[in-house]
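Reproducibility note. Readers wishing to regenerate the assembly model reported in the main text can use the exact inputs given here. Chain order matters: entities are listed in the order in which they were concatenated for prediction.
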Amino acid sequence: MSIKILIPTPLRPYAGKQSIVEVSAQTVGEALADLVAQHPDLRRHLFSEDGKLRSFVNVYLNDEDIRYLSKDATPVKETDIVSIVPSVAGGIQW
Amino acid sequence: MASVTEASPATLSNEEILRYSRHLIMPEVTMEGQKRLKTARVLCVGTGGLGSPLALYLAAAGVGTLGLVDFDVVDYTNLQRQILHYTSDVGRLKLDSAIDKLTAINPFVEIKRFDTYLNSQNALEIFSGFDIIADGTDNFATRYLVNDACVLSGKPNVYASIFRFEGQASIFATEAGPCYRCLYPEPPPPGLVPSCAEGGVLGVLPGLLGVIQATEVIKLILGGGEPLIGRLVLVDALAMRFRELRVRKNPECPVCGANPTVKELIDYDQFCGVRGEDSAASTSAKIPEIQPEELKRRLDAKEDIFVLDVREPHEYQIVNIKGHLIPLGDLPTRVHELDSSREIVVHCKSGARSAKAVDFLHQSGFKRATNLTGGILAWAERIDPSLPKY
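Running the prediction on these inputs yields the following structure tokens for the assembly.
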């Protein structure tokens, strides 16, 4: 099914400057996989070389961190919103 | 935090009663709450974008002791958002400038100045004189330092951060709540995130977020309402949308978890790989550079040099040296516009993005690409002082 992923400002340059990307997925993991398939430049910003989600990038399903749900395997439904929430230091390093 | 639960021993003069009258008549504050504010000791780490509205409102509200940590000097680029500092303050220590304004707003506030860079050696000692810490810093190393020092000393960390037109705010390191490391166990490696030159910040955004911080500090002192603990507020000023995410306390958190592995302050520059900025520098060590003076001499001698500008179009509009514009992000798809047989000098604002571009060009077979040292800022400084800097 089709769900929305919200892209934060720092990552928009790697997602065709879009703030919302529609993906087709049954789980959060599939949603992210579809996202980086559509926007390959995002991959290194979200995943380390071994394919794990980077520790400074949090993924939320609605208002809950997927680390406290079923991580990648968390099922999604049509109205769900997946958010990527990277750490931001301030005006300087970003 | 003692000030929250105990009756405050402070007294208010008639002058103070008049000054705070709009607080005193609120049932959520009253005389008791205002005395708590007077007894409270709040440390603002940084007096920049976030620290300006934060400290201004805390002083106005009557927080009795305000600590300020900053080592920086006011510059022109600060004035667009750091409202503690005025044009006439450019070149002064931010601390001196801040103390003038805060004292002018409220002479009843006692200000403690810490003219230093917060570090692992001084943080716990500085924090020991305060009840609440407000993090208005701008770099990951200091953010992790503030967090860990708050957890170790049992003091809440009222947090906000900003980027362009988006911000985040929360309260970390309360006894029951999560800490910053519960949310973000590790910082991003330097270089993976866009640099300052590509970043920027809407001037009012730190105003929005700094005022959220001030609100939460005051609520912690008064002990009422619903503090922003275990919740991360996301502010998108462009859409003017506020969202809220849950932040859970991580039982395995290395600092505030059940079995902490970080029991004292560590080397945060190393933790955040800042010394590896030198890793950006070490990449650039392999990257051939050309000094502005040499480029100028060779261009004047009509040598065949193709100047490539990898900044963004809006930066090109501010100032340019007539280079061919291909933003760094577009370089992979537009690399065919370049001629690999020609010598290419790449520049950006200050040299970091162009170093990445030269690295990419070398890997793509453009062996004659070099990086202009210091970017267009160095050119404006050393070759053509008529150009604006930004």
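We highlight two features of this model. Helices of chain A lie at 28-38, 43-46. The beta strands of chain A are 2-6, 20-24, 57-61, 64-65, 81-86.
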